[in-house]
Amino acid sequence: MKKIDLHIHTVASASDAPFEFDLDKLLNYVFDAKLDAIAITNHNLFRKEQFSEISSKVGIPCFPGIEIDLEKAQILLYANGSDLDSLASRCDQIESHFSANDHSTSFEQLRAIYGDLSEYLIIPHYDKKPAIQPDTLKKFGDSITAGEVSSAKKFIYSIKDRERLVPVYFSDCRISDQLISSPTRQTFIDCGQITFGAIRTCLSDKTKVALSASDGNSLFQVFEDGQMLSTGLNVVLGERSSGKSHTLRRLAKAFEQVKFIEQFSIVSRDEEEDKRKFNEHLSRGNSLHSRDYLAPLSVVIDDVLNVDLSDDERRVEAYLESLLRYANEIDKLDTFSRAALYQEEPFDEVEQTGLADLIKSTKNLVRNEEFRDVIERHLKPDSLKALYVELMQLYTQRHNELQKKQWVNELVREIKGKLQVRSATPSVAEVDFYQTAINRRKVAKFSRIVQQARKEREISRKPLRGFEVVASVGPFSGAGELKAVSKSQVAFSEAFKSYADPYAFLQALKDIDDRVPASDYHKYFVSIDYKILNKDGFPASGGQRSEFFLLQEIEDAKDSDILLIDEPESSFDNLFLKNEVNAIIKSLSQTMPVVVVTHNNTVGASIRPD
């Protein structure tokens, strides 16, 4: 097995933090890590002279390459090194492109610069940010067989999935004078002599890549001293104060996405503080449920958000006052105020939202294939199509009428304005009584809906790992609760004075600064509270809450690269760990590395680590 690292930076590009390349550090890395081949892949540039110097000094095969920003992702492109001048010329075009444009290269530009891409080895960021998009990957066809991943977990995931690319795990390191320890991320390939062709062959076959030389993918290196870790379940056993926690902290620094459950971090200490944190945790975990419950209320709020009853009142008052003035001075009408258009009322401009929704629903019935048999048992296809056509014709007719009304209204307003400017007779102010009435009805209905949503009741129960999570709704009891929902320093005390009147409360929310966005208004009308019940149906005790927290934290680790647990026996009894925790840890370790630290050999043995 040969150990390779084909992702090494030696020049600080515009995309990097500044660093000074140190050749001695690179030589030390090659020696300490016992590398068999490396590649130099600087960001959007290639330095021929520097590469030639490195290649002559490292004593192992060194391949020229470049890391290119491509369609919002990054790819590594390598050449066999037989024509450095040609490669340098092509890479200079990439560098010039970024100097002038400062944005990603397109696939078409890449192919225009490098020609036949099958002559190169191309490895995209795959399960690593910024990752190549499926559409971009398809453009390369068979030119890409391997993809770079960011963790051992993702390496194993790609190995097991037959549909995914061959994974590679590289350091992506900057070789600078500040480099303290040698990187530990490399890939082993099963080949004899290292050549460009041999590497390409190995990186098209998952059976020829591994995380370790002799243990395949069951172990991988984590520390520069050669310490290995299982890709499954690990136990670190040692006496107190023997450096176990220190080892976990070192591991935490070695990975990008880490779930670290530190000793005593979950145990209840202050009852009230513990309850508060517990409720926050449940709220976060059930945020999707909260959004589902409040979604209809959000729609209603959007509908009344721009309703201004005070403005409607002012418009009606202005209309009545102007009407009285006009009536008092009707005997003084001049030539301009006697014109028919002087007091003309505009046409009502009623939008066709209801008809548009009906057309959309009919269209869905016509096009639906999943339930075609059910639909056709009750509605004839020809009748549905005829309905759709007639509705469209009606919509077109009404739309044309609306456009005519809008045109006439605009013309009348313009003429009236000119007449009113030249007349000494007072005019009657315009007011849309229909819209004013609609606005009042909207606000009244909005208030009833909010009051209904605030009625105290239980809205859901769902089991969760031996417990039951109960969600209840009701009104907020104080401004402090609103502040907790916002998770900001915004003061809600003034707004809460109007809380009993939903419409007035909405106006008060609008008066608060921009740190309360309109898209979040619905969160402040109804309180959703979560509590957890034990298997007997009673509220969970402090100890049971801690057990629930531990199980939840372990389950949340599924999106991390590694799970670290520090001495769980210090906070939980052995029976709970054996009956509840071990099974979850075992299951999780099938997909990611897990490390449990303990000073108790009984606990260590009961976990049955790999």
| Uncertain regions spanning at least 5 consecutive residues | none
Portion in helices: 40-55%
The description of the largest β-sheet is: 10 strands, mixed
Shape estimate: extended
What value does the average pLDDT take? Answer: 88
Category by helix and strand content: alpha/beta
Q: How many H/I helical runs? A: 21
Structural Rg? 35 Å
Q: In total, how many beta strands?
A: 19
Beta-sheet strand percentage? 15-25%
Give the N-terminus to C-terminus distance in angstroms: 23 Å
Q: In a few lines, what is going on in this structure?
A:
The chain is α/β, with parallel strands linked by helices.
Structure notes:
With 610 residues, this protein is of the alpha/beta class. It is 46% helix and 16% strand. The chain has helices spanning 23-32, 48-58, 84-101, 107-114, 134-140, 152-160, 196-202, 244-254, 271-285, 287-304, 309-328, 353-367, 372-378, 381-422, 433-453, 479-486, 493-496, 502-511, 542-556, 574-588, 601-607, and strands at 2-9, 37-43, 62-70, 73-78, 121-127, 146-149, 166-168, 173-174, 187-189, 209-210, 219-221, 228-230, 233-237, 258-261, 457-464, 467-474, 527-533, 562-566, 594-598. Helix 6 (152-160) links the parallel strand 6 and strand 7 (166-168). It is extended and about 110 Å long. The two termini are 23 Å apart.
Please write out the topology.
Blueprint: E1 2-9, H1 23-32, E2 37-43, H2 48-58, E3 62-70, E4 73-78, H3 84-101, H4 107-114, E5 121-127, H5 134-140, E6 146-149, H6 152-160, E7 166-168, E8 173-174, E9 187-189, H7 196-202, E10 209-210, E11 219-221, E12 228-230, E13 233-237, H8 244-254, E14 258-261, H9 271-285, H10 287-304, H11 309-328, H12 353-367, H13 372-378, H14 381-422, H15 433-453, E15 457-464, E16 467-474, H16 479-486, H17 493-496, H18 502-511, E17 527-533, H19 542-556, E18 562-566, H20 574-588, E19 594-598, H21 601-607
